[in-house]
Amino acid sequence: MNTAPLNTGLYCALDFDNEADARAIVERIKPINPKFKIGLELFCKIGPSFVRELVSEGCDMFLDLKCYDIPNTVAGALRAVGSLGASYTNIHISGGEQMARAAIDALKESSNGKTKLLGVTVLTSMGQIVAGTSVEEDVLRKAKLAHSWGLDGVVCSARELEIIRKELGPEFETMVPGIRPAGESAGDQARIATPQEAVCLGATNLVIGRPITKSPDPKATTQAILESMC
Ligand code: C5P
After folding, report:
1. Tens digit of pLDDT for each residue in 44-97?
2. Over the stretch 171-215, which tens digit does the pLDDT of each residue have?
3. Residue 174: CB within 6 Å of ligand 1?
4. Residue 4 C-alpha to ligand 1 middle, in angstroms?
5. Does domain 9-229 fall into CATH 3.20.20.70?
6. Is this prediction's pTM over 0.85?
7. Which of the residues 66, 108, 144, 219 is marked catalytic?
8. Which of 19, 36, 57 is nearest to 208 (CA)?
9. Where on the phi/psi map is residue 189: left (φ > 0), alpha (ψ -120 to 50), or beta?
10. Is 144 a catalytic residue?
């Protein structure tokens, strides 16, 4: 069954160690898909001003900071993040309820409700966790916690989409990395799916990095992926 919501989005992960390479990819891809994900590497290099600049140019940003600390510290970080104008940022669900609730309150206030907060379940680079629990069970357990605490959605792999949709409904958002077009190398990702599979399973948004950024023609690759998602 195709459970896809309309218009699954595609965030291109800008995993670069320098500004010039990041800007070159943004310039090529922005005209056809102005959605980008910035993680710790680039954020530590060129920081908040780059996020603000892209937002002011009309880009839709996912700030992938994966916050995980005591509630007071995470709330402080998210108060700072809220003014940047990103559409999404995230915390680790393992940080617990107090941390999550402090994060939600801080972000809601500082972003005026503009930035959605997602919870990281189990990294898509992990194929197994502690003995006695399957990854799917652990992801679902964490997704249910995130939902009950009031997070907007979760980061998970395509493999858990069906069960999350079934248990938590169509409004709870899913941001899905570990995406590889057919025939691409998995690299360090363990729980992978093609863009089409993830869309059909109901992903709200996909995150794709290296298949685009290492492609000889990133714009054509992005275009092909977008077409395959329709
Ligand atoms: O290059 P690739 O497509 O594997 O990039 C995936 C991106 O998604 C990376 O930036 C990675 O940090 C991010 N991500 C992930 N797994 C998560 C959360 C984020 O791979 N659970």
Report:
1. 999 999 999 999 999 999 999 999 999 999 999 999 999 999 999 999 999 999
2. 999 999 999 999 999 999 999 999 999 999 999 999 999 999 999
3. no
4. 21
5. yes
6. yes
7. 66
8. 36
9. beta
10. no
Q: Is 3 exposed, middle or buried (0-12, 13-18, 19+ CB in 10 A)?
A: middle
Our answer on whether the CB atom of 67 is closer than 6 Å to any ligand 1 atom is no
Question: What are the tens digits of pLDDT across the range 111-162?
Answer: 999 999 999 999 988 887 777 789 999 999 999 999 999 999 999 999 999 9
Beta bridge partners of 89: 63, 117
Please tell me the distance from the alpha carbon of residue 6 to that of residue 213, in angstroms, as a whole number: 26
The DSSP 8-state label assigned to residue 217 in this structure reads: S
User: Which among 17, 38, 62, 64 is the best mutation to test ligand 1's pocket, defined by most ligand atoms within 8 Å of the CB?
Assistant: 64
Q: What are the sequence ranges of the domains in the chain?
A: 9-229
Helices (H), 89-194: 97-111, 135-149, 161-168
Residue in the block written with tokens 């915390």: 91
> Which has the closest alpha carbon to 175: 217, 110, 120, 98?
120
